[in-house]
Amino acid sequence: MTELPDFVSIREVGPRDGLQNEEPIPTDAKVRLLDALSRTGVQRIEAVSFVHPKAIPQMADADEVWQRAAKAEGVRYSALVPNTRGAQRALAAGFTEIEVVVSASDTHNRRNVNRSTEESLDDIAELIDLLHGAGARAEVIVATSFGCPYEGDVDPQRVAGIVDRVVRDGADRVAFGDTTGMGTPRRVRELVTAVRDRNAHIPVLLHFHNTRGTALANLLTAMELGITEFDASVGGLGGCPYAPGASGNLATEEAVHMLHDMGIDTGIDLDALIEAAEAEAAAAVAEIDETERAALQTALGAGGTGRGAAGAMRGAAGQLKDLEKRQKSRATRAQRDALDRALVDLAGFYRDALTMALRAPVAPVHTDTAALAEAGAQKWDAEGALRRLEAVLECRAAIEANVKPRIAVEAMMLALWKG
Ligand code: ZN
Q1: Which percentage of the chain shows pLDDT scores above 90?
Q2: CATH 3.20.20.70 fits 9-268, yes or no
Q3: Which of 99, 346, 381, 391 is the most buried (most CB within 10 A)?
Q4: pTM of the model
Q5: Distance separating the N- and C-terminal Cα atoms of the chain
Q6: pLDDT of 373 higher than 60
């Protein structure tokens, strides 16, 4: 077995790369996420990007987010910029580590910035000079390094050639992005070898996407090749831009879990990181949660009699179906997990409503009967539903016992709708 490193440096990219590929969230939530991450022991965070707000509305408040964030000592923060204007904003905001991007694939680069790879490399040479002149360090991120959504395979020699060029132009570091999630251990090996053969000393960072489930295998392969710097995103924040619904960034907590278990230190406190992931998930689901909870509380508020409870049952059942639909359409792991939790909560409400309907001795008997008949007319078999909910609550126990939430929730949905 090849020798593995003792320490791996993770750059947390959730606040920038992650949020940039999600529905916009409030400034407050961004600041909270950044601050929570700063307390995890992570040494590097990609904080924001300075891009045109019309192009990327998710980062329109970058200046404010950065200004309000509690910068932690010992954390290196970086910003991504697309051009001179962005670089000037990042420098004015006080960043000293700045990333610029070019796509290895010509077609991808043209679609993004309407320039060929070569033309973008000319721009980058000027940007590097500008950044160095202001005392900042420049990292060049090479996107689509492992495959292009338009051209397919990307030749590792082409990527290595781009590295030659940016090293000549003064880049301090290079990063390779698996934009499409096409990376596999074979591709990682070929790319790292091609780059290292020609530029043995330039610091290299790898950015994997888990679109096809290969991110951790790629991480392990890269470590075997001596790479010790990786990007990861808390909660897997950031979907795949080319496959709606598919996962994008490697989840930081999954990478950290694997590394720590292998005796490889990251400096990161996994519990604090999971707390940050949960805070992020809560923010992502806050809006859904609020409206749906309110509707449900109202429905339950009418309870206390068989009729009210039966109404609440139907209300909760509707909410569950709706949430299930949304859960399927949500892209990120964090959002899915948050919805999983909301589903479990709703199942609890639903159980209470059902119990109330079955046990409502205070209400006149005929009311109960009427309510249950009404429920029956809606194809609700209350006794059967309660039995199925017992199965749901067993699933809840499984979730609490740390079984993979997706599996538990799928079992729960099965129990509810097909049971
Ligand atoms: Zn990414």
Answers
A1: 51
A2: yes
A3: 99
A4: 0.71
A5: 49
A6: no
> How close is the Cα of 234 to the center of ligand 1, in Å?
12
pLDDT of residue 52: 92
Choosing from 65, 100, 240, 338, which is the catalytic residue? 240
- CATH 3.20.20.70 in the chain: give the residue spans: 9-268
Please tell me the distance between residue 94's alpha carbon and the centre of ligand 1 in angstroms.
24
* Model confidence at 352: pLDDT above 80: no
Per-residue pLDDT at 134: 98
Neighbours of ion ligand 1 (CB under 5 A): 17, 249
How far apart CA 140 and CA 131 sit, in angstroms, is 12
State in Å: Cα 35 to ligand 1 middle. 21
Higher pLDDT, residue 304 or 117: 117
* Interval between CA 396 and ligand 1 midpoint (Å): 32
Dist. CA 78 → ligand 1 center (Å): 15
pLDDT above 70 (res 310):
no
- Is residue 395 part of the annotated active site? The answer reads no
Distance in Å, CA 360 to ligand 1 centroid: 53
pLDDT of 21? 82
Query: 188 or 348, which is more confident?
Result: 188
> 173-177 and 229-232: which strand pairing?
unpaired
